Amino acid sequence: xxxxxxxxxxxxxxxxxxxxxxxxxxxxxxxxxxxxxxxxxxxxxxxxxxxxxxxxxxxxxxxxxxxxxxxxxxxxxxxxxxxxxxxxxxxxxxxxxxxxxxxxxxxxxxxxxxxxxxxxxxxxxxxxxxxxxxxxxxxxxxxxxxxxxxxxxxxxxxxxxxxxxxxxxxxxxxxxxxxxxxxxxxxxxxxxxxxxxxxxxxxxxxxxxxxxxxxxxxxxxxxxxxxxxxxxxxxxxxxxxxxxxxxxxxxxxxxxxxxxxxxxxxxxxxxxxxxxxxxxxxxxxxxxxxxxxxxxxxxxxxxxxxxxxxxxxxxxxxxxxxxxxxxxxxxxxxxxxxxxxxxxxxxxxxxxxxxxxxxxxxxxxxxxxxxxxxxxxxxxxxxxxxxxxxxxxxxxxx
Length: 398
Prior knowledge:
The model is unreliable at 1-19 (pLDDT under 50). Strands 3, 4, 5, 6, 7, 8 and 9 form a 7-stranded mixed sheet that branches. The protein has a two-stranded antiparallel ribbon with strand order 1-2. 49% of the residues lie in helices and 22% in strands. The chain is flat, with a radius of gyration of 32 Å. With 398 residues, it is of the alpha/beta class.
């Protein structure tokens, strides 16, 4: 596990803004109880403005207490056998000390006095907490492995490796238990029960999209493998399984056991709706007086603006069932509706362009456009539903 990275500071800057500068950020962090960033931002203030009186006074006054308090918390965590917590707390001390140590010598801008800022060396304690945390998770992994709880064991070995990358046999044991815990899942084409068959193989599109969406997140795939429909067909033919036209919930358990599949996902598209309501059209008049030159009266110009809002909505509702092969039962089901809204605005005008306000000029500069055609709109809704389904299904097996 690496020490706290600068991304923590970046996120902090994004959340609260950086208009007040490093010292202002340090004060805010201190008030919120975030001592690590309070120190780091104070150090940043000194890099930006060497000798900064408030930052130097703060660090000289508060650092010893911050170190002592954090160290005491780490010791209590050790006493409670919370080596994860102890590791983080010692890491905080080292992070603050490294930041202070990185500063050049500082001279107080008000007093002219050379200020020496305190650091604290807890490297020995930090490394001990790292080893203890790695061992604690390794031992937990062994315990889970002995109980046949492969997924929990793999997770504990992974935590051990977070601390020490080559700790004992954690890597080999992690991979062995991960493989043992992997669930092989088959997502079958969804049945299109919407009554709208002209959308083609939309059920196949949804099933394929579920797989691709789930696979985009590596966390989903740690304990999950997908078996494609083509692979199932090939295996069924190879095994000469009877009545092999399709797999359904009734035959899933039998076929799954033969093919080494742990669960099937079946689904239905229950409704598909696309709607193109009439355009919303509004007209308004604008006028302006424009100069015609020196010693000449202003000229009044007018224009009539037509503002048009064009909309479309695609809706797809899908339901699914997860059938556990070993038990032969439905272990999870759900319903996922997805709606896609399209709205585009543009304008036209008649009259003198000089009469147009800035807002109307912008509106009338947008070219006329139309929502996507029916099949594309429905396809977008299908893809959105597939993303939602992928999150639910992968989350169940995670």
